[in-house]
Specification:
101 residues, Poly(a)-polymerase, middle domain, 0% strand, mainly alpha
Amino acid sequence: MPSPFTTCRNSIYKLLKMDVTLYNSQKAQSSTSLDTFFMKNVFFQFLETKESHHQWQHDYLSLRYAEGLEYVIDCLANRGITRYFIDTLNILGDSSNVQKA
């Protein structure tokens, strides 16, 4: 049986992926669609913003979801998110405005 912390993280990631899928379907003709690679990098970095495992209890699901969505929006607004394992490379282009966890 998975831990409640893992279950909450998985739920948040699935919700954010659904949001990105919806965003992409609305922007089908645009070059601004987001891919799973972007979401994984953003989500890994978002996970690091929470220091305690207790912040991932199921009781905080809606709060973590709202914070995760805000994190994604901030990354897009700033046009900067680093690759998770290579933090000098900006997924969205210009490496001068990368957002690091």
